[in-house]
Write a structure and sequence with these properties.
The chain is mainly α. The protein is 78% helix and 0% strand. The chain is built from eight helices and no strands. It is globular and about 50 Å long.
Length: 204
């Protein structure tokens, strides 16, 4: 658990370095860095909706994981996060480990960088729809490239692209159109999606 917390903090710091350098070059006050990236308040109703969306998006691949033996075998690989959780330890430990991995190590850092930095930057240069498609495509392709190195099963690769694309596209839309630019909705969508899906793959 200690190494996970350390790596999460380190990843968070590294994620802030590139935006900090960019805003420094642009001569924007760095004290507002987190605000520029969307770390700001959001409406409770929007956050509740985000949690529900994350739950629904996680259940779809979760059900496939349960009923498709080939998909089940791939996702249980210890080369994937979904297959790296050790359920031989106390259940509370495993759930906490999955929670930190889902919300802090992946959702928080990835949303700050991709939806907070990249997507907002694209939205300043292109129309909102084009920017949203571009950032979602980028996020999906990055996940796809990592997955190709692990397993070339077509169904697995389609999943590896499609669900990150959906999470990022829907998340950025809600952030910008419903939450006044806050990235907390997409953090909750992403985190909830990961959390539920990892629980299913860990104990399924």
């Amino acid at each position: 658990m200690g190494s996970l917390i350390f790596s999460t903090i380190l990843q968070f710091i590294l994620v802030l370095i590139i935006p900090a350098i960019y805003y420094f070059i642009k001569r924007k006050p760095l004290k507002k860095l987190l605000y520029y990236l969307g770390v700001r308040k959001s409406k409770p109703g929007v956050l509740a909706t985000a949690l529900l969306i994350g739950l629904v998006l996680a259940l779809i691949p979760g059900i496939i994981f349960i009923f498709n033996s080939q998909f089940h075998q791939i996702l249980k690989s210890d080369r994937l996060i979904s297959g790296s959780f050790h359920t031989d330890k106390p259940i509370v430990f495993t759930v906490c480990f999955i929670f930190i991995t889902s919300y802090l190590k992946t959702a928080l850092t990835e949303e700050i960088f991709f939806r907070g930095f990249i997507a907002k930057g694209l939205a300043r240069k292109f129309s909102f729809t084009i920017a949203n498609l571009l950032q979602a495509l980028l996020f999906g392709i990055i996940h796809l490239l990592f997955s190709i190195a692990i397993n070339k099963n077509i169904f697995f690769l389609a999943f590896s692209f499609t669900f990150p694309f959906l999470f990022s596209f829907i998340g950025f839309y809600i952030n910008e159109k419903k939450a006044d630019g806050s990235i907390f909705p997409s953090i909750l969508i992403h985190g909830m999606g990961n959390f539920i899906f990892y629980l299913i793959t860990a104990f399924g």
